[in-house]
Amino acid sequence: MSLQEMCEEREKCSFNTRELTYFLDGGKDKTLELEEMMTSFERDPIFKVPTYDLSWKEQREMSFKRITRMVPFLSLDGEEKFNKRMGLLAIIDGATYTRLGVHFGLFTQTVRALGTPEQFTHWCVDKGGLKCSKFFGCFGMTELTHGSNVAGLQTLATYDEDDGCFLIHTPHLGATKWWIGGAAHSATHCVVYARLIVKGKDYGTKNFVVQLRDVNTHELLPGIAIGDIGKKMGRDGIDNGWIQFTHVRIPRFNMLSKYTSVDDEGNVSKPKFAEQLGYTALVMGRVTMVYDSYTTGKRFITIALRYAAMRRQFGNDGTGKEKKIIDYTHHRRRLFPLLASVFALNASSAEVEAFQKKAQESVLSGDMDKALPNLKDLFALSAGMKAFGTWETCKIIDEGRQSCGGHGYSGYNGFGQGYNDWVVQCTWEGDNNVLSLSCGRALIQNYLALEKGEKLGDYSKYLANYASTFELKTSQLEDIEQIISAWEFISQNLVKKATTSYKNFLKASGNQEDAFEKVSSNRFEIAKIHTKLITLKTFYSRVQKAKAEIKPVLTLLCQLYALSITVENIGQLYSFGVITGSDFTQQVNFKIDEINEKLRPDIVGITDSFNLSDFFIASQIGKKQGGIYEEYFSFVNSQTGKEQIPYYYETVFKPYLHRSLEQNDNED
Amino acid sequence: MSLQEMCEEREKCSFNTRELTYFLDGGKDKTLELEEMMTSFERDPIFKVPTYDLSWKEQREMSFKRITRMVPFLSLDGEEKFNKRMGLLAIIDGATYTRLGVHFGLFTQTVRALGTPEQFTHWCVDKGGLKCSKFFGCFGMTELTHGSNVAGLQTLATYDEDDGCFLIHTPHLGATKWWIGGAAHSATHCVVYARLIVKGKDYGTKNFVVQLRDVNTHELLPGIAIGDIGKKMGRDGIDNGWIQFTHVRIPRFNMLSKYTSVDDEGNVSKPKFAEQLGYTALVMGRVTMVYDSYTTGKRFITIALRYAAMRRQFGNDGTGKEKKIIDYTHHRRRLFPLLASVFALNASSAEVEAFQKKAQESVLSGDMDKALPNLKDLFALSAGMKAFGTWETCKIIDEGRQSCGGHGYSGYNGFGQGYNDWVVQCTWEGDNNVLSLSCGRALIQNYLALEKGEKLGDYSKYLANYASTFELKTSQLEDIEQIISAWEFISQNLVKKATTSYKNFLKASGNQEDAFEKVSSNRFEIAKIHTKLITLKTFYSRVQKAKAEIKPVLTLLCQLYALSITVENIGQLYSFGVITGSDFTQQVNFKIDEINEKLRPDIVGITDSFNLSDFFIASQIGKKQGGIYEEYFSFVNSQTGKEQIPYYYETVFKPYLHRSLEQNDNED
């Protein structure tokens, strides 16, 4: 019966779902490539083993088994395709994705980005890094007392001029490397972030390759102490560990020296734009996380929407059955805007990835004066999109789970593990709050630059078109360009206001840090509004280029996204007089309900367009055929024991329930 | 060093923390009682066993062991004190709390509330229910296809006039009892919700006691099929299961018959207010969850704030050290309003508990005309406070975790398990969204009643004082009474507006359900505003009665709560013209920063007032003495293996990393 109901849902769809898949994937060839890779995961027995019952220690073993299945593809696929494969792995096994990503994404990419070609060849080719042959790398950045403040790390790399070596040393407990993925079990080598000390002078944090273990025996090398940091909220497949160094001597060659280098006499040389040059490569981590926000988001919104299209509760659908929960106004209101967000994340991830490439190329071209405005924009944009993108996906998983009621809490429907694995994305590679405040600071700095007549980058130049008034009418609520204009107006005004406040505080205290600190709430707010505005603009401009047959559904989704961010931040529209009167809010809400009604027939079709097989959905209530009860029930029975009497019955249960009720001497 | 820093933090505190504890606990005697109970948990070896490494199956065993340590206290403590003890258990072990709560809170309380005195005596005394002697009860309400819609449950209880028995039957897969805590391992008996069918007539859902297992062998009785529903997001210590009944015959005596009863000839009798009479007792679950929101909230905000008071990152505190993260404007902004929320939850939980007692007494007094307005209010108030209270605690745990950076993600700092255990509170005992919409519907119904000149209950009667305009000035932002008046004005206007819209839709469609459906977004909004307003009023009125020495700090917290809900919903103030201009928002933000600055010296003192020992805090970075690094490091080392080579090294790791790189025949 559920099969038939799902077929009926599909028949309602107004567009060719395959075309929408091509749009989302960036073309038919990309879709076919992804499908082939998805099949290779599904066929691999190691990826079929269920992990629900594994302890955190067993998960680490399983994760390494899966790593062995991934490694060969790096040479088979080539780098670009392998990254797509990694993106698929991220959807089904966040731990393995990260554990391997630390080696391939962090270790080898750092050696490539910050090391000389000889250094890359040495570790990644000759020593076996790229093939994981007698080699596994880890990334030794964070310490027990330092995470966000990388410049404040405490591990020391002291140059010994006598023998031309560095001494890597952990001077106190707080400098213990902490959270290092791969350190506890796997890593043979580590890129260590440590303060370069030459002739008593501190040159700040640089990068050094340190071997941790004997590659033949896997025993720790002298001076290296390592421990496991144990149980985590999620991603237990990663063997995060801590590392302490006691005067570990490494050759001068082991300092990554593409930009900063030390000669044998201890002279330190550093090019003018060393930070910026290193930065564009390292920002890739954030860019990837916007993409992961999209793919993880589409998995969980699919589960929630398919369940909503099959689950009935209360009411009457007109045929005597209870009403589908997807047909409740409020249920749509909870989920459809998040569906629109997934499309917005798709657009912004493609946009920020392209912009990263553009900025990197302009840096490589060497004309830094020309490259700098876009580099600043890349910093603000990638920070904002990483922060608000990963948060949005938290919301999608959490609201998705709640929207599935009790079944959302089952371990077999994906949300719990999915949430636990996901949320660390808000913390690593730049804490979301710290990134948001940085983004806000960059916007104020942009505005100060603008006031001085300087040129702004591609994504902040709209700040220059300052208008003093703007009015949005309820009749314009379907006009995305008007809504974009309204939010540009708000963003301009908010950034201007924040800059004015900053300047006033600066005048009063004379201290820049203090003045920025005082406008913290402004900084957070402008980062949010700016990021959502750019996301909306990006989404809208991509919709314009879509094929005619999918343009209507994309336009509805884009309208919904525009109105969702509008209603979420509606106070700002009122405060700047863009709208007036309590009816406006009411009309926005009714308009959202109206768009949801129009989107309703297409919902299941849209989830199909996301093109994740049941294997990738990995949820008993989110399957394509919609058998939310039969298959769920039979799956639960396949997972759990058939024994009616618990294994602790004789030892714990029976002795208590069948205890004598005669009083012991201590009882009265 | 950290010890000394924490001492310095405590020295800054402006009030006697002990007095604030008494205020929160409701008096010194209550505090002493709680402390004695906390000590008894801490001394019990079974509660000392760490559970980090247990699989979900092992957690079920541990949970039952802990249950055996709790049961004796029911007779030793008496019911009221035992409930307090259960409240403490909820903080440290949500699974065991619920598993035992299903028996004591749901099974026995339902038999008490809906059964006759003879029925209570039979199962709870004679058969051993109250002592868990050869008896463990469970609560068979939800089914695979029905959760929220209790009236739509499908299990059948068909009366057989020939032998005076009921036949309990699961007619199809969807009617399988699902999520039944205790069913999989422990329960001997179950209160089954089933449709009463007499002579072919369906009388709707009633309650029946059904024995599930032989009390001596623990084997399932004939006609009973049970399975384990397996892995969950959290609370794996509960043995949730599914139950299917195949024509299970039970005596007529087993239908709980305090209100509705069937005589031996099949005549069904039911008093006029059966639902309302049964309801006041069953609403206790929600009331308890507001209290649990408070206690769990205070645990996690304590961890986050103590960590913030010890952790340093970036900047300079003036003494050459990095700045404490608690001294960043934005970090305060993230946590201090949540601290204020914990105080608001303390107030609202006491208020709703008292109101439940009052309503129950007025029902028992028999004058239903007098009792009904407050019963309606109790319904709306407990629904709203359960929903927005449990959500607030989700936010406290989530924001608390994020505010601790990477360390928040460690399994040993409490947030992960805490979140996983907590969030089901948003789903069970009434899904939060369903409850919010019901609360909104009740408010519209109240307004309709008001328009007809009917009397409203204690908490909704403010709706009658309708004003057409209200102005709030920036100079009044510290005046809580003015802010309360502003939100009363908004709530009145929103409820009026929702009612008007409802009436218009009703006029157009003639269908009440349809009209209520159309105003869903209004219903959700008025439920939120009404609940937060009542919470603020309650908080404020309790602060007025506090001792002089703690009144200043409580007033700051209450101001902060008032401004937090104001800024979160500021669009409403603009939309009704209560405030104007973008400066207002800016001023509210600056005022919040200012209050946070005033609260700052008292923060650690406030966490002390919550009076949870390190055992109850159960977080390495949240301990009273503040040794966030040393103790955390040594704890991690005590939990994890010292072996440097992973247990799968020989079987998995070495064979792969040391594989031959000679090509296999399939490779080119």
TrEMBL record, chains A, B:
Binding residues for FAD: 142, 181
Oligomeric and partner information: Heteropentamer composed of five different subunits.
Domain Acyl-CoA oxidase C-terminal residues, every copy: 479-657
Family: Belongs to the acyl-CoA oxidase family.
Gene3D superfamilies: Acyl-CoA dehydrogenase/oxidase, N-terminal domain, Butyryl-CoA Dehydrogenase, subunit A, domain 2, Butyryl-CoA Dehydrogenase, subunit A, domain 3
Active site: residue positions: 429 (proton acceptor)
A UniProt-annotated Pfam family: Acyl-CoA_ox_N
Every Acyl-CoA oxidase C-alpha1 domain range: 279-444
Key words of the record: FAD, Fatty acid metabolism, Flavoprotein, Lipid metabolism, Oxidoreductase, Peroxisome
Family matches, as InterPro entries: ACOX_C_alpha1, Acyl-CoA_ox_N, Acyl-CoA_Oxase/DH_mid-dom, Acyl-CoA_Oxase/DH_mid-dom_sf, Acyl-CoA_oxidase, Acyl-CoA_oxidase_C, AcylCo_DH-like_C, AcylCoA_DH/ox_N_sf
PANTHER family: ACYL-COENZYME A OXIDASE-LIKE PROTEIN, ELECTRON TRANSPORT OXIDOREDUCTASE
Listed GO biological process terms: fatty acid beta-oxidation using acyl-CoA oxidase; lipid homeostasis
Domain Acyl-coenzyme A oxidase N-terminal: 16-124
Major localisation: other
An annotated GO cellular component: peroxisome
Subcellular compartments: Peroxisome
Catalytic activity annotation: a 2,3-saturated acyl-CoA + O2 = a (2E)-enoyl-CoA + H2O2
Pathway: Lipid metabolism; peroxisomal fatty acid beta-oxidation
Protein name in UniProt: Acyl-coenzyme A oxidase
GO terms for MF: acyl-CoA oxidase activity; FAD binding; fatty acid binding
Required cofactor names: FAD
Residue stretches making up the Acyl-CoA oxidase/dehydrogenase middle domain: 138-248
